[in-house]
Amino acid sequence: MWCVSRNLSTHFLHLKISDQYQNATSQSTISSSSPQTAVNGEENECDWVWNEIKDEPRLDAEFEPALAGHLYSTIISYSSLTCFLSFHLGNKLCSSTLLSTLLYDLFLKTFSSDPSLLSTTIVDLRAAC
Prior knowledge:
mainly alpha; Serine acetyltransferase N-terminal domain-containing protein; Ser_AcTrfase_N_sf; serine O-acetyltransferase activity; Ser_AcTrfase_N
């Protein structure tokens, strides 16, 4: 499982994990395969990384139904890594005078205007794990 998703889950979740969940995660296999190279390698790798990150919150939601709504609205519902990062950074940096929705739009436009930001982010995520 990806370190980032574990850190996000730890950040969001402060509840005791059930024995059933612990057994399921200890028996699960971690995908160590690399993304397949496609015509657009960066986009394919981004999708692969995002799917890997979402795997742990999906499992958490399955075994902890009380948290499912929160996990879906904060992680799983986002269709791409750029949308999720824009949401997460916007919420982290917002204030009473700088709304998270404004920051979300700003981050989304920034990721769209400079593809190297996403590439660098993916390299950092892979290096951290």
